[in-house]
Amino acid sequence: MKTAPTHTTSAPDPRDLHPSQHQVSVGILSTYPPTQCGLATFASALANGLRRCGVTEVGVVACGDDESVNSAPGVVGRLVPRDALSVSRAAQILNRYDVVVVQHEYGIFGGEDGDEVLEVMKRLQRPVITTLHTVPLQPSTHQRRVLESVVANSDAAVTMTAIARQRLLASYAVDSSRVVTVPHGATIPNPVAPTSDSSPLVLTWGLLGPGKGIEWVIDALALLRDEVPVRYVVAGQTHPKVRATDGENYRHMLERKVRKHGLENLVTFDAEYRTLGSLMRLVSRASCVVLPYESIDQITSGVLVDAVAAGRPVIATAFPHAIELLSDGAGILVPPRNAEAIARAVRRVATDQVALRSMAARAAALAPMHNWVSVANSYRNLGLSLLPRRGSEALA
What we know:
The chain is 39% helix and 16% strand. It has 15 helices and 13 strands. A 7-stranded parallel beta sheet has the order 3-2-1-4-5-6-7, with helices on both faces. A 6-stranded parallel beta sheet has the order 10-9-8-11-12-13, sandwiched between helices.
């Protein structure tokens, strides 16, 4: 058990709220809605899943400068980057819970490569489970040191794919006994067949920014225009961090490319902020989802998991998470930055109904393992296993 200076507080201890129950309370350190990023969405879904699987108390210490998160339901504190007092307060709050779950990504914490998270972790007196959202294949020396220290200061480190675990153990000096794999969660919608339209609809969604590779899909559709008039919807706002530094330059570049190819009637940019229900209705209209990411270093993708959970075939560049999920037939893998390969994949989806139905069935078969309640229950049981005196009673 890690040791740290004792802090006093007048706030109630969540473990005292249900003294007669052999249960577990969980504190989460992460970005959190209304912050717009994948980790915030993940943390919110995990918190809701933990509550649904019987966790007595879930509290979130939200990372970032956005004060509006203070009023979000379930938020019990905030970690402000580059604020030493905030580090101490965040650890103090998290130490009120039985188990702490840290969502780790280099870009959400202060310091070089987000190394301020280590100052919080060193102060934690509770068992720590850290979810690793990024495991760089070619890290800088400091990135390597940070990630190895994060794992060393965790009682368990969670990777969300087998490939990520293999990479972590092969490329970093970490204790393999601490590393476990729990799948990325997804909201499982009711099965819905794609809408029968005159033209196939392909969909890309998520926060926009350079590296998403959408320009390669537009080039692919230009190759198919006279053969298969596929409609393409790009749904999502520009990533707030991208918008803060580059404005809407990426979106404007994509719009110019659409005009250059004369695809205005086939490509739609939908920047509407969608609720989960609205997004699922949009996904239900799609013949397939296209994830043309330029990087092949991405070990997890929430959009990929959501698409598969919705029973939609996926065309994706061969990044690690896509290789793991799609290789059994739930989609088609293509090289990055390759319009011709994307065009061939889209042509197959648009013209081969047998293949489309087969891919959709394979995708739907993967959905149950990603149910958020099942995923959250894995975190709960992992947390209980780190509490040796109470774990066996709580699991009974």
